[in-house]
Amino acid sequence: MTVTQLKPVDTGSPDPTPPRFSGRGGRWWVPWLFLAPALVLFLYFKFVPMGSALVMSFQNVQPFLGNQWVGGDNYAKVIASDGFQQAAWHTVLLALCQTAGSMLLGLILALLMEGQSHRLSFIRSAAFLPVVVPMAVVAELWRIMYHPTGDGMLNSLIGLVGLGPSGFINDPHTSMASVIVTGIWRGAPYDMMIFLAGLAGVNRDLYEAATVDGASRARRLLHVTLPGLRSVFSILFILAAIRGLRVFTEVFLLTNGGPNGSTEVVMTLITKLGLEQNRLGVASAGAVLLFLATLLLTVVVSILRRRERE
Amino acid sequence: MSAASETALGLKESTTPAGRLVKLVIHALVLVVFAGPLLALLVSAFNHVSDPTQLSVVPSSPTLDNFTVAVDQGVLKYLLNSFFVVGFGLLLQVVVSTLASYALARKKFPFMTLVFVAILATLMLPEEILAIPLSLILSDLPLLHINLIGTLAGMIVPLGAWAFSILVMTEFMKDVPRELEEAARIDGAGEFRIFAQIILPMCRPALGVIGVFGFTMIWDQYLLPMLVASDSSTYTLPLALRTLRIDPIVTPGVVMAASLLALLPSVIVFLFFQRSFVHGLSSGALKG
């Protein structure tokens, strides 16, 4: 930016002959040529799908009979349906618990794993592995670990302390908690890395000042470290909440919404409506609502952040 | 006590045996919880599992049978499909993003802000939400009337529209000194040569970030490939895991062997490019 502004000063010769390329470099269509592939792809695969989701959400979509405008019917149907209300509640519950759990565990991990030693950096890398393992693998792995009989891996573990056997993902009472635990296992190391980056940015002089003032470790943590991480908290919250709202893969592979609809979330419901029942209009209305929720959340949190900064 | 190495908890090198023991236990616990399940996956992939409900933590009867069965089930073909999608998808994504970033970072033109904001806005558009309309569009591309459903191309082409890479690349390209470009221009270099030979080589760190992130994102993709693949001939490896599991004659050991093949590429990429990864993670997230 500054370089651009300085340029007239640099070339401050009185020579009035126009340069071969106009001031900012190149003919008018040059930037558009560079942008063209991106514009075409974004149009085809982002903007048109979004537009068509919006349009379909107001239509009764019938592939061979022609679509009919039905106004807000799809939305009314979606909002009134027990299935969607339940799925929305499950989605919020899942997103909230996973976000809170991952952030809390991630913060604890970051505080414990902060440091320069080789051992710590090895443990940090190892603990981060779940984040880079594809979700499909995570789900298959946890499916086996969650095996509902007494000799299943996690059941034998909790058996050691006299608990279980639990049905985990096969029991409507524990299925949601099980999906949440799997999500936290994969989410916490991610949050840990971000918190570690945040911790590195906390002013060291403040630590020293606090120590000089005779503050205990706990007080220092509460009054110096945590306030220093405030922006990290809000960023992580937005990222995780958005990720949580659109959750699909792990639920689809672990439970596919079952048992008895106890883990049905908005995305698994939409996929069922759209793909299995071919009710594209209603499915689109659900997707648009999910998008609006995401948008609302992002806007609210960024307004809160801005207000805090001022 | 040097302030620079001070940590938030102020944990110093413990001198007491008790303090060391507590630390050791905590570190072991973290390893067991987060790396343990992956170790169980690894061991089970190479172990003959007699009990279909169990993962093995200790290799009791080592074997390569799981991989032989997995290969019989077509896992190599799925792996090849995955590599094909990630290879061409990433190439397309990086080329399209760097070209667009060059225009956005180095040029001024009407509607530039509008274009930039429109692209950034898609960051808030989760691909899961777009999945169904996107699959409809892929079945009959507007104007072109091509059906990409059931083809690997249908999984690859949409990957070109990836706002995160454009954002990272544009931010980075803005900081490349203008003098370099001016000098090349005076030497008569054309626009594309300036892009490819002056600007891009300066952007290696950013290329590392978008490459690593693009790879892991594409490798992890599930819903879109699921909607595009019409039958197993176009399955990627993550999609095939579910089919393998449902197959009654396939044991968990085989599923774990296939899972190992599915996780190795992204884990290897992470371990090799850890610095790019962590850098992109923290800068991307903290800049917000």
Number of domains of chain A: 1
Biggest interface found: A-B, 110 and 98 residues
Silhouette of chain A: globular
Looking at the structure, the CATH topology of the largest domain in chain B is MetI-like fold
> How many DSSP H or I helices of chain A?
14
Low-confidence runs of chain A: 1-24
Shape of chain B: globular
Question: What can you see in these coordinates?
Answer:
The complex is a heterodimer of chains A (310) and B (288). Chain A has one domain: MetI-like (MetI-like fold, Orthogonal Bundle). Chain A is built from 14 helices and two strands. Chain A has helices spanning 2-10, 29-56, 73-80, 82-113, 118-132, 135-145, 153-160, 175-200, 204-212, 217-228, 230-245, 249-254, 266-276, 280-309, and strands spanning 59-60, 68-69. In chain A, α3 (73-80) crosses α14. Chain A is globular, with a radius of gyration of 26 Å. Chain B folds into two domains: 14-63, no CATH class; 75-287, MetI-like fold. Chain B has 14 helices and no strands. Chain B is globular and about 70 Å long. The model of chain B has no long low-confidence stretch (mean pLDDT 86). At the A-B interface, α1, α2, α4, α5 and α6 of A face α1, α3, α4, α5 and α8 of B.
Q: Main attributes?
A:
heterodimer; A: 310 residues; mainly alpha; MetI-like fold; two-stranded antiparallel sheet; 2 strands; 1% strand; disordered N terminus; B: mainly alpha; 2 domains; 14 helices; sugar transport (chain A); Multiple sugar transport system permease protein (chain A); transmembrane helix (chain A); transmembrane (chain A)
In short:
Chain B: This is Multiple sugar transport system permease protein. Chain B: One of its GO terms (cellular component) is plasma membrane. The complex is a heterodimer of chains A (about 300) and B (about 290). By secondary structure, chain A is mostly helical.
Give the topology, please.
The complex is a heterodimer of chains A (310) and B (288).
Chain A: H1 2-10, H2 29-56, E1 59-60, E2 68-69, H3 73-80, H4 82-113, H5 118-132, H6 135-145, H7 153-160, H8 175-200, H9 204-212, H10 217-228, H11 230-245, H12 249-254, H13 266-276, H14 280-309
Antiparallel strand pairs in A: 1-2
Chain B: H1 17-45, H2 65-72, H3 75-106, H4 112-121, H5 127-139, H6 152-156, H7 163-174, H8 178-186, H9 191-202, H10 204-220, H11 223-228, H12 237-246, H13 252-272, H14 274-287
Helix pairs in contact in B: 1-13, 2-13, 3-7, 3-10, 7-10, 8-9, 10-13, 10-14, 12-13
